[in-house]
Protein 1
Amino acid sequence: MRVASVTVDLLRVPSVQPYMAAGREIRDYWHVLARIVTDDNVEGFGYVVILNAALVKPLADATRELADLLNGMHVFEPEAAWKKLTQAAKWVGPGGFVNCAIAPLDIAIWDAAAKAAHQPLYRLLGGSRDRVPAYASDNLWYNLSLDELATSAQKHIADGFRAMKLRIGNEETPQGEVRRVAAVREVAGDGVRIMVDATETWETNQALQAGRALQDAGIHWLEDPIDHQDVTGMSRLANVLHVPIATGEHLYTIGEFSQLFAARAAGVGIIDLARIGGVTPWRHVASLALTSNVRICGHVLPELHVHLVAAIPNGHLVEYVPRSERILRSMPTLKDGNLLAPSAPGLGLTLDEEAVRRFRVA
C-alpha cells in the first residue's frame, strides 16, 4: 500500500458570511488541498485553511515540492513519512511555514491508511469514543453589540449546541467583558458552557483582574489572555485563577508544548493541526498532555479534529467554526450537543469535486 501519486491544489473558498477578525475582514478561506493515490488505488486527502492571502501560493508550492518525497512511501508508516518530510525541510524548520506545508500531506496519508484498513480515522488512532461535545465558535466576534451577540447565541442554542465561545478583550473594563458573557448567559441558560477567548489582549495584571471577574461570571475557560510566549505569566494566571487557562493554538513544536505543560501554564491545551504539522505530531502533543493532566482540544477544522479528539482519553471539546463546508458534500452530524465522528473509513468526508474545480486558483 504505497504512494503512487500526489497532487496539490490551492483553493480560494469564499466565506459564507464575511466577518472581522484581528482588525481585518475575512472574506476568503484559502485551502491547500493534498490528495494521494496508492498503488492499490486508495485515495486519501487532507487540507489546511489559511485566513490571510499572504504566502499562500508559496505554501502550496512548498507542499507540492515536498509531495514528491512521498512517492513509494507506505501509507501505514506515517511516522517515517513525517520524518522524511521534516528532515528534507530542516534548514527552514522546525515549525512555522514548514509544518503548514507538511500538514496536508500528513493528513492525507492518515486518511488513506484508515481507508485501507476499512476503519474510521478516530478508531485507527485509538477510538476512545465516537462523539465529542462541540462548542459553537462562529459569529460571536468582538464587533457584535450585546443584542447581536445574544441573537447569535440564541441561534447556536437552536442549532443544538450546549457550549459556545465568544471573543473578548476590547472592552475598557472587566465589567464590560462580564456584560458580554451575561448577554450570552441570559439566552443560553445555566446548562450551557461559555468559554471566552481574549486573543492575547492583556498584560498579566490586567488578565488577573479580568479573569477574576469572568470566573465569577461562570465561564468554562479563559483562552489566550496574554501573549502565548509569556509562559511564566500564563503559569501565574493558571495558578491564581480557578478557571482553566486554555492556550496552545499558536505553538508549532512538541518542545513548545512540553515547556507549556511543564510550567503548569494550561489546563486546556489547544492544538492547531496546521501549525503542529498534521496528525502525526498532534498525537504526540496529546499524549504529552496526558502526563500533565491537561485536556486537549483542536483549533477550528471540526470535521478533522472530531477524529483526533475522539481518539484520545484526554480529549475535551471540538471547536465548531466551519471553514470548509463549501468544498465538502456534508459535515459531521451534531446530535445532543455532540459532534459525531463519521463512521465511514478514513476521515469519512467526501469532496464536492465541482466546488473544488470552481474554487481552484492554482
Protein 2
Amino acid sequence: MSKALELAKSKREEIVKFMSRLIKAKSLSGQEKEVIDVIGEEMEKVGFDEVKVDGLGNIIGRVGNGRLKIAMDAHIDVVDVGDPEAWEKDPFSGDWDDEWVYGRGASDQKAGMASMVYGVKIMKELGLLDDFTLYVTGTVMEEDCDGMCWRYIIEEDKIKPDFVLITEPTSLRVYRGHRGRIEFKIRTKGLSAHASAPERGINAVYKMAKIVLEIEKLNERLKSDDFLGKGTIVVSQIESVAPSVNAVPDLCTIHIDRRLTAGETKETAFEEIREVFKRAGVEDAEIIELEYKGVAYTGKHYSMEKYFPTWVMEENSLVVRAAKETYKKVFGDEPVVGKWTFSTNGVVTAGVYGIPTVGFGPGDEKYAHAPNEKVKIEHLVKAAAFYAEFPKTLLKIVG
C-alpha cells in the first residue's frame, strides 16, 4: 500500500464528516455562499497557503508557489432534488453509514472537493510539495453554464494554469475528454389569419414541422468517433405565438440540444442546419444563437455563449500519462481510461483555452442528478490519496 493511500485511510472519518457538511450546505446554482464558507473553513484548517473568494464567488485555495501551475477543480453547485417523494433520505441530511455518504451533490460533485482538500493535507504531511503552484478551485454556477466559472478565473482573476485536473465523477477511472455541445433556437415566421380561414395565412408551425422532421433524419446521419461516440441532435422544446387560440400562428420556435463529437464545431453544426432548411423547403427560417446570462450569489453579472466545445486529450499526452502514472503509484494497478457522457468545466479549460486537462473523480456518473444520490466512502479516501500524489507526479513527467 502506498504511503498516500495509507494516510488517506487514517483520515477516513475526517473526510466523511467534511463531506457530510458539504451536502448539508444546500448550494443551488447562484446560491452557493453557505457551502463556499464551509470549504473556506476546511481549507484554512488543513493549512492551505492562501484561500480567497473571487468576484463570481469561486473559492480558490493555493498551495505552493512553484513554476508549474496546476489546478484541480470541483464545481460545488448542485441541481435541485426533483420529486422529494423519490428520495429515501432527506437530500440534504448528509447521512452516512459504513459504505456510503448520501445526499444531493454526493457524486456530482462535492465528493471531488472533499477529497481534494484532504489530498492537500496528505500532500503536506508526506512532504509531496515541489516546484509547483497548486490551485484547488470550488467553482460556481456550473450546473447552469458549465465552464463559465473558469472563463471568469482565466479572464478576470488572471489565473491560467498549465494543467487542469477535473474531479467530476469517473468511478475512479482516468477520463480524457467528452463530447461538446451547443444550444440554439430555430425560428420560423408566418402570417396570422383567423382560424376559420387558414388559407389566408401562413402557418409558422407547419413550416417548423417540416424542419423538425428533417432534424430527426439529420440525427441518423451525424458522424461518429471511435472514442467519443456519435454526435446527436434533439428538439427539446417547441412553442408558438398567435394572436389567439383561434388564429393561425405567425411565429414558431424550437430549442435544440446538439451534442458534438470529435471534429464537430459550432460552424459545422450550423451548416448542417442550413442544409436542413433547404431539404425542408423553408429557407427563410433563422438560427438564433443563445447566451447564458447569470447572476452570482455575489451579485456579479456574467455571461457566456451557449457553445461548449468538444475536447479530447491523446492517451500519450503529458497530463494523461501523469494521471495513469499516479494511479499506478497509489493503487499498484493499471487504470481504466475513458470519457464522460455528460459535460464538464473542461469545455472551457481544454475546449476554449487549450489547457491540457484530465479527469479523475470519486463517485459514479449514474448518480448525477438522480434521486438517492450517494458516493462510496472508499472512493473519497482513494481519490484523496490520488490528488496528494498527482501534482508531483505531473511535475516529474513534464520535467
